[in-house]
Amino acid sequence: MLTFIGLGLYDEQSITIAGHDALQDVDRVFAEFYTSKLAGTTVEELEDYHHVDIEVCSRADVEQDPEPILDAAAEGDAAFLTAGDTMISTTHVDLRLRAEERGIETEIVHGTTAQTAASSLTGLQNYRFGKATTLPFERAHGGDGVPQSVLDTIDDNRERGLHTLVFLDIKADDPHWPDDADEIYMTGDHAAELLAAERPDMLGVVVGQAGSPSPTVVADRMADLATGEYGDPLHMLVVPGELHHMEQDALRSLGGAPENSL
Amino acid sequence: MLTFIGLGLYDEQSITIAGHDALQDVDRVFAEFYTSKLAGTTVEELEDYHHVDIEVCSRADVEQDPEPILDAAAEGDAAFLTAGDTMISTTHVDLRLRAEERGIETEIVHGTTAQTAASSLTGLQNYRFGKATTLPFERAHGGDGVPQSVLDTIDDNRERGLHTLVFLDIKADDPHWPDDADEIYMTGDHAAELLAAERPDMLGVVVGQAGSPSPTVVADRMADLATGEYGDPLHMLVVPGELHHMEQDALRSLGGAPENSL
């Protein structure tokens, strides 16, 4: 049996009780933190809090050589942990399908996600979000500025009045990412600076430390967001589409949006 | 202080540990179950498990006369519980903004959501979902079949290759909903039957009992989904757009999709 468990957004208490309980029943616990991470805790704290030993897998362990994980799940009960929800990346779906192919039963214990938080913390309605996108570091896509595909997604959503959640690049455990890079987790000001070069007056909302007791929510024009600081990672960026009356009120009240930005 | 806490998807253990802990610190606990509900538990079981007394609010309590909730949050610490994540409905954003206006501090403890589950359980990638929509009961929109706006959302997403999450109507605590109605929670077969009248060959995925230990996932043509049964509520329906290779594999392996449906 292989149980995929989402750790949720922030620290060792962001997991559901069902997830915590499921961890007590397994023989081995694997985890990966390269697609995302929990900013408010460490592997050691997770181990102490949940009374388990966690075997942290590299990208290569999961994507190229997942047999040890599958063997553990075939011989006994294993759990596979990810930040946020489980199955957030094709890598996890692939692992699940490999398990099913080997006749290993799989189960999912959901976790809270950045998409959930993007909507809840900003007051922007979840059913008014269009397709999400990811903004990569400039050197990661070998170009300057913002890839056209990211702008297209934002523009396409805005034309339909829809909000866009922009995930910001994460370069943890990436063999192609230089050790001396300034950033591993793209910040909200960096993202806003990139977008401001194309759309300086466009409204944006930076969300930082989602899932923590004191998250950051700042709504302003991209050019102004580019000069701000938003605390510890992880950050994300929301580009609102058409705003309903109550969504405007929410961005004013919860995100401090200046009138000229709305 | 008013803490909004998402109860997650299914039962008393679907809440995060952070949410459970926050409940221990408050003086009064309010909840509403008309926008959604936890299919795997009762209010009494929630009270026992979390050692709290829960005051269940009707739609009118929250939308027309929220003062008692706000008074409790002004005088002490109050929690407001919803199934899924908190802030899933404008009703909750409105309550939060009223609290902020009165100078009451607010905090959010996230819960897992149907959107999360729709992606995780089906293997369809979360960043390939477009705008979501809600399919209403026929008599709720005073017409036959599927409202044009629902079809437009699905078609618009499919043109872009995007998946659509279709929330199914919930008519709990609705004064305009007749007591003798057959259904309060629309089922997946009912939804598929409505959509099959317009698009019989369109691929759909019914997801039932999301967040439970044994969720239902069935992928097939709408006309075939319309003849199925999917167990206890709540149900939802996903209409896939373009399928990547691994998403096809997932629908075959996890949803039993017949080849002629893909």
How do the strands and helices of this protein lay out in sequence?
The structure is a homodimer of 262-residue chains.
Chain A: E1 2-6, H1 17-24, E2 28-32, H2 43-50, E3 54-57, H3 59-63, H4 67-75, E4 78-82, H5 90-101, E5 106-109, H6 114-122, E6 133-135, H7 148-159, E7 164-168, H8 188-196, E8 203-208, E9 216-221, H9 222-225, E10 235-239, H10 245-255
Parallel strand pairs in A: 1-4, 1-5, 2-3, 2-4, 6-7
Antiparallel strand pairs in A: 7-10, 8-9, 8-10
Main attributes of the structure:
262 residues; globular; Cobalt-precorrin-4 Transmethylase, domain 1; 10 helices; 33% helix; Methyltransferase, Cobalt-precorrin-4 Transmethylase, Domain 2; 2 domains; alpha/beta; 5-stranded parallel sheet; homodimer; 10 strands; 5-stranded mixed sheet; 18% strand
What's the gist of this structure?
With 262 residues, the first copy, chain A, is α/β, with parallel strands linked by helices. The first copy, chain A, has helices at residues 17-24, 43-50, 59-63, 67-75, 90-101, 114-122, 148-159, 188-196, 222-225, 245-255; strands at residues 2-6, 28-32, 54-57, 78-82, 106-109, 133-135, 164-168, 203-208, 216-221, 235-239.
Portion of residues in beta strands of chain A equals 15-25%
CATH architecture identity of the largest domain in chain A: 2-Layer Sandwich
The CATH H-level superfamily of the largest domain in chain A is: Tetrapyrrole methylase, C-terminal domain
Helix share, percent of chain A: 25-40%
CATH topology of the largest domain in chain A: Methyltransferase, Cobalt-precorrin-4 Transmethylase, Domain 2
Sketch the topology of chain A as an H/E string, one letter per element: EHEHEHHEHEHEHEHEEHEH
Give start-end ranges of low-pLDDT stretches of chain A.
none
Biggest pleated sheet of chain A = 5 strands, parallel
Strand order in the sheet with the most strands of chain A? 3-2-4-1-5
Secondary-structure-based class of chain A equals alpha/beta
* Overall 3D form of chain A: globular
Q: Mean pLDDT score of chain A, rounded?
A: 94
Distance between the termini of chain A: 51 Å
Task: List the quaternary state of the chains.
Answer: homodimer
